[in-house]
Design goal:
Oligomer: heterodimer
Largest sheet of chain B: none
Structural class of chain A: mainly alpha
Radius of gyration of chain B: 20 Å
Helix content of chain B: over 70%
Distance between the termini of chain A: 31 Å
Number of strands of chain B: 0
Distance between the termini of chain B: 21 Å
Largest interface: A-B, 56 and 31 residues
Number of helices of chain A: 9
Shape of chain A: globular
Structural class of chain B: mainly alpha
Shape of chain B: elongated
Number of strands of chain A: 0
Strand content of chain A: under 5%
Mean pLDDT of chain B: 90
Low-confidence stretches of chain A: 109-116
Low-confidence stretches of chain B: none
């Protein structure tokens, strides 16, 4: 990551996102996704893992950045915070897939790192399948608020829940999704 | 799933983030955990029964000071450890100061006495009680601290677990201090110090399992 040039912009987007600015939050996640992709591809290249795994990690990190954004301390630099999360997710990935530096067949390494850095690749994560792992109520709320784009009050009216309950459910649902992803990753690698 | 899809999903209906949630959760964990620990002490071994003299109160103050200094430094470290990108490495060395100070005081106290008096000074009358009470009293604060830390994003799970264990152990030992009738500096340095370190070690073992996110 090119710390010097991107730090002030990213930090400004983060601060706006923390105040509830959805457009800034989206711009931030888009910018970060390409940085994270480059980072994970670079790391995974050493372990002979492909772009699909990198995309899984990008998505996992994005969800973590979103659901844990309250852990960012505005008095500190933003880039080390993102890097801390990315690195944690990468180490966690290595641990659960039991990859080690010895797995690396040297002759293929060039191929992996030569992949271009675009978002054409789909991750192995299937959102619908992941959603099935949530409780019906939480799934419904995520569907309304996060996928259909209903406002919190509309979703609250449709589900017959209070607005604060909807907010809590969305937050829990996203965390549960993140957990599902971690589990799923462990399942198909073991 | 395409990453763009995920980004759309995450940035639909973004809620503003409330500040200070983490600090509040930690503060609650410490207060309720400390109170729970004290209640467990009252319910099991109870307060010290002998009449309180000036020197008794002095030793109680020393015990509490030793333990609360660990709680203070440990909590400051936890605040750093649950935020990615802040490792608190400088602060980490401070955690050893209370142990060193207590150890030094213990050695000086021993040096001032003839060696024949060392045995009761070190073992006291209740070192066995101390062994099981401090970890027992640490259970409630440890559970509450883990609950609070899981709201954060610790990236070094072993270290975070260790410090959580240390803070919980120190809270447990603070509660035990109100029962303890062994008024000797070497006793405090050795048994309190060892039990808190044991709690930290257990915390380090449990951290990666309990704190993963």
């Amino acid at each position: 990551m090119d710390v010097q040039s991107t730090e002030p912009e990213l930090r400004a987007l983060m601060m706006a996102g923390l105040d509830g600015d959805a457009a800034a939050h989206k711009a931030l996640l888009e910018r970060l996704s390409s940085q994270l992709r480059a980072y994970f591809k670079g790391q995974l290249g050493r372990f002979n893992r492909g772009p699909v795994e990198a995309e899984d990690l990008v998505q996992e990190a994005l969800i973590a950045i979103h659901t844990r954004r309250h852990t960012y301390d505005p008095s500190q630099l933003f880039t080390p915070w993102v890097y801390g999360i990315a690195r944690y997710k990468f180490v966690d990935y290595l641990r659960r897939t039991k990859a080690s530096i010895n797995d690396l067949p040297i002759e293929n390494a060039g191929e992996v790192t030569a992949q271009d850095d675009r978002a054409h690749v789909e991750s192995s994560l299937d959102l619908e399948k992941l959603m099935m792992g949530l409780s019906p109520r939480v799934r419904q709320v995520i569907q309304y608020v996060k996928l259909d784009g209903l406002s919190v009050s509309e979703a609250a009216a449709r589900c017959g829940m209070s607005e604060s309950n909807v907010k809590v459910s969305v937050h829990r649902g996203l965390k549960a999704l993140a957990l599902q992803i971690t589990k799923q990753g462990a399942d198909h690698e073991d | 799933m395409k990453t763009d899809q995920l980004i759309d999903m995450l940035s639909t209906n973004v809620e503003p983030v409330k500040h200070g949630q983490l600090g509040k959760a930690l503060a609650w964990a410490l207060v309720i955990g400390g109170a729970a620990s004290f209640c467990v002490m009252l319910a099991t071994v109870g307060l010290r029964t002998e009449p309180a003299g000036v020197s008794h109160l002095g030793f109680l103050a020393l015990r509490v000071l030793f333990m609360l200094s660990l709680v203070g430094v440990g909590t400051a470290l936890l605040i750093k450890l649950i935020r990615p990108g802040q490792d608190g490495r400088k602060l980490f060395t401070f955690i050893f100061f209370p142990f060193l100070a207590a150890g030094f005081a213990g050695i000086v106290a021993l040096a001032l006495q003839p060696s024949a008096a060392w045995h009761p000074m070190i073992l006291g009358t209740q070192w066995v009680t101390c062994l099981y009470c401090i970890p027992l009293f640490a259970i409630a604060p440890f559970a509450l601290l883990i609950w609070a830390l899981r709201k954060g994003a610790p990236t070094n799970l072993q270290r975070t677990g260790a410090i959580a264990g240390l803070v919980a152990g120190a809270l447990g030992a603070t509660a035990y201090a109100f029962h303890c009738s062994d008024d000797s500096l070497p006793f405090i340095a050795i048994w309190y110090g060892a039990m808190v370190l044991l709690c930290a070690w257990i915390g380090a073992r449990l951290g990666p399992r309990l704190l993963r996110w």
